Amino acid sequence: MERLARHGESQVTALVKPFHMSLPALSRHVRVLEHARLVRRRRQGRLHLIQARTAAVRQAQQWIETYIAGWGTSFDALDQLLEREQRKGKKK
Predict the structure, then answer these.
(1) How do strand 47-52 and strand 39-44 relate by DSSP bridges?
(2) Domain spans, the chain
(3) CATH code for residues 2-52
(4) Would you give the DSSP letter of residue 21?
(5) 30 touches 39 (CB < 8 A)
(6) Which of 35, 77, 81, 83 has its CA 20 to 30 A from that of 7?
(7) How far does the chain reach from its first CA to its final CA, in angstroms?
(8) pLDDT tens per residue across span 8-34
(9) Where does the pLDDT of residue 2 fall: very low under 50, low under 70, confident under 90, or very high at 90 and above?
(10) How many CB atoms lie within 10 A of CB 50?
(11) What is the 3-state secondary structure of 36-61?
């Protein structure tokens, strides 16, 4: 995703080059991103060109940031609960 965001539309074969993975493996990853509507595939003859859907990525980022704040609060509450339980266990 980062590579697509930085370089714009890219061929699938160009996307696989910096990674130690097969073209079919990368294609599976791209299909997942397409299904999530985070990328768009365009065919030009035999070429498959992939482009990040930046608006969708921003929406996903906003959704994640919303939940991160809640998770932080939940983890803090869990830490406090575990600390209280540990203190109780030491007193016994």
Answers:
(1) antiparallel
(2) 2-52, 58-92
(3) 1.10.10.10
(4) S
(5) yes
(6) 35
(7) 53
(8) 899 988 888 888 899 999 999 999 999
(9) confident
(10) 22
(11) CCCEEEEEECCEEEEEECHHHHHHHH
